[in-house]
Amino acid sequence: MDEQIKQIAERLRGLRDALELSVEEVASDCKLTAEEYRALESGESDLSVSLLQRIAHKYGITLDELMFGEEPKMKSYFLTRKGTGVSVERTKAYKYESLASGFKGRIADPFIVTVEPKPEGTAVYFNTHEGQEFNLVIEGRLLLNINGKELILNPGDSLYFDSSKPHGMLALDGKTVKFLAVVMQ
Length: 185
Fold this sequence. Notes:
Blueprint: H1 3-18, H2 23-29, H3 34-42, H4 49-59, H5 63-68, E1 86-89, E2 94-98, E3 108-115, E4 132-139, E5 142-146, E6 149-153, E7 158-162, E8 167-171, E9 177-184
Antiparallel strand pairs: 1-2, 2-3, 3-9, 4-7, 4-9, 5-6, 5-8
Helix pairs in contact: 2-3
């Protein structure tokens, strides 16, 4: 199990324990079965950023506390130099680099997302979360499927969308894709 995933799973368990909630209560709040939630807490299941954001919002903590174990501290500004954002690799295919992890009370979560190419014919993994999202492709070509509509984004292309609609992505041309994602609640 990836060490970062294991740490996030431990923080999920700690949050539930601190709030004295049962697995069933948290699972219900997350719109998951108890078995699915147990798999998250054990680190056996993929932890999407959107799910972590939903849990953080529901229980009044920051996304950073769940993902990185740190509470944001800056109130005026937070500078992230190129390549120094706090990162988490959820799976072998996606890496998220937080660009504002130290800013307290932010209303958006900006990330640099790296998507590695997958074998031909790999199905798109769909995700949904509250709010809206903005994506700007920095390098590579990205297939973005939103609610069944397939869009191809090239470097410099951007898309703003309702993230409550099922959406997923694939890197195209066998090359890594990097894009800016800004998630807003």
